[in-house]
Amino acid sequence: MQTYEAKAIAKEKGFDLVEVNPKARPPVCKIMDYGRFKYEEKKKKNEAKKRQKLVELKEVKLRPKTDDHDIDFKVNHIRRFLEEGNKVKITVRFRGREITHPETAERQIHTILEAVTDCGSLEQSPRMEGRTMTAIVAPKARPQPRAKKPEEDAAPEQEQEDVSA
Questions:
Q1: Lowest-confidence segment of 91-105, 108-122, 136-150 by average pLDDT
Q2: Fewer C-beta neighbours within 10 Å, C or N terminus of the chain?
Q3: How far apart are CA 15 and CA 34, in angstroms?
Q4: Confidence of residue 165 (pLDDT cuts 50, 70, 90)
């Protein structure tokens, strides 16, 4: 169909002639209300943005000489962060001569990881970066509850009505 014919048909119906795929030979066009199309596209984009969940990276800082009781407190914080759906970065900072014993920090990180295995999994294993040792723990994916369709909700009610009648 010629462009001028398509434009005439679109104008006659009160719509716009929109080029869908200009790279195709011949170019693909559609007769539609362009303003409504852009509005619906914007709505879909905003809806997708609402459903998107941002995952924050929370950080818990320790030292190699951190006591067991303090580590237990940190474990509780890590659990809370993971249950909220955030990732946690465990950082052990070395000062002075503490750097000569990185195995103490690694032991601390492994005890923390063992304590939170039920709600989190190791994403990045402990590694040294200068004077710090870091590890990242991600929350375990929980199965999302399935949303019922309207037809599924209506069917049980009809069965109940039939039984009572």
A1: 136-150
A2: C
A3: 8
A4: very low
Beta bridge partners of 93: 132
Closest CA to 108 of 58, 57, 68, 59: 68
Residues 6+ apart with CB under 8 A from 128: 102
What is the DSSP secondary structure assignment for residue 24, as one 8-state letter? Answer: S
**What ranges make up the beta strands (E) of 6-165?**
16-21, 28-32, 57-62, 87-93, 120-129, 132-139
DSSP-derived letter for residue 50 is: H
State the Cα torsion 158-159-164-165 to the nearest 10°: 60
In order, the DSSP letters of 123-138 are EEEEEEETTEEEEEEE
Confidence class for position 147, pLDDT limits 50, 70, 90: low
What is the average per-residue pLDDT within 49-57? 80
Under 8 Å between Cβ of 61 and 91: yes
Set out the domains of the chain in order of their start, with CATH numbers: 3-51 (3.10.20.80), 57-139 (3.30.110.10)
Burial of 85 (0-12, 13-18, 19+ CB in 10 A): middle
* pTM of model > 0.85: no
